[in-house]
Structure prediction request, 82 residues.
Amino acid sequence: MNTARILVVDDEIQNVNLIVKVLKKFYPETEIEVAHNGYDAICKIVRFRPHLITLDINLPEVDGLTVCRNVKSNPETQNIKI
Prediction:
């Protein structure tokens, strides 16, 4: 079985630290990647191919709704859970 991959997208460091801490506690085998803005998230989604994305709506550069639309409009990423 492949290791689960989660992308955490948030520009608030405190939120990222909390989410990552909880995920590592309950899912220690999970690969976790972090993005701090929408543009970085889009780039990492293509490269990292997460199974799940936790996505803040209010992000610098590209907002979370735009990231979501981008993911869902791409046939290669449209099945990723957000």
